[in-house]
Structures are given as structure tokens and as C-alpha cells.
Amino acid sequence: MSLKERIKNDIKEAMRAKDTAKRDTLRNIQAAIKQIEVDERRELSDADVEAILMKYLKQREDAKTQFADAGRDDLVSKEEAEIILVKTYLPEPMNDEELEAILKEIIAKTGAQGMKDMGKVMGAAKAEIGSRADGGRINVIVKKILS
Known about the structure:
Blueprint: H1 3-16, H2 20-40, H3 46-70, H4 73-87, H5 96-110, H6 118-129, H7 135-146
Helix pairs in contact: 1-2, 2-4, 3-4, 5-6, 5-7, 6-7
């Protein structure tokens, strides 16, 4: 079952269970998926859906930070619940050791010598690693290796 189908089925299950928080979160994700499908007139793959989920997750984490800074604990807990739900649809994230090992291989493949080759490494890394690691984490480790 594709990720898109799984989300669609989970929306139905949430509706049957009267779980409005889960239903609403999944509907937001489904709306983002449909928006891209309509705009680009193409069927999205699981990798595309994972990218949408990563973007949605980052938005939720940013919102959680802003609500925490504003002292809105009620909204912080809502964002935390959405973050936990979205993470269930994403592959298990890589730990730093795995990520560093893969990035060293990518750097060797691309022949990167220093910081001037950062873009080449980042492009190859995002293609190979996908949604198993956040771009920010990849960036920090690549900088550490290249410098």
C-alpha cells in the first residue's frame, strides 16, 4: 500500500473512531498532496509524499517553538500531537553515526575537496538519504567533514 493510500485509509479510520485531531491532521496532509498533484498534473510517488510530510513536520516544529515562546501551552500540546502522528508515516530517522558514514561515502563519490563543493554534496545527499535525515542535520555534518 502506498503512503498516499495509507493516509487516505487512516482518515477513514479516524472518522469512524471520531478522532478529530488525527482526522484533521491527516486531512491537512492530504490537502497538501492534492494541491501538488493538481498544480503539477502528476501522480506523486512515496518519495514525494515523504517530502511533503517532512515539510509539514518542520512547519509543526516551528509552530510549536513559536507557541512555546508565547506561553501557549495548549497549542504546544496540539502541535506535539501532530508531530508524533506525522512521524509515524516517515521512515526511521538515521542516527548521527550512520548519517556521517553515508555522507563520507557521498563526499568520496563526488570528489568534494572543500566547502566550495558543498552544493554538489548536498544535492547527492538529499537524493540518497531522502527523508531519513533533516537537511539541517545533513548540512551541519557535511560542513564538519569538509572543513
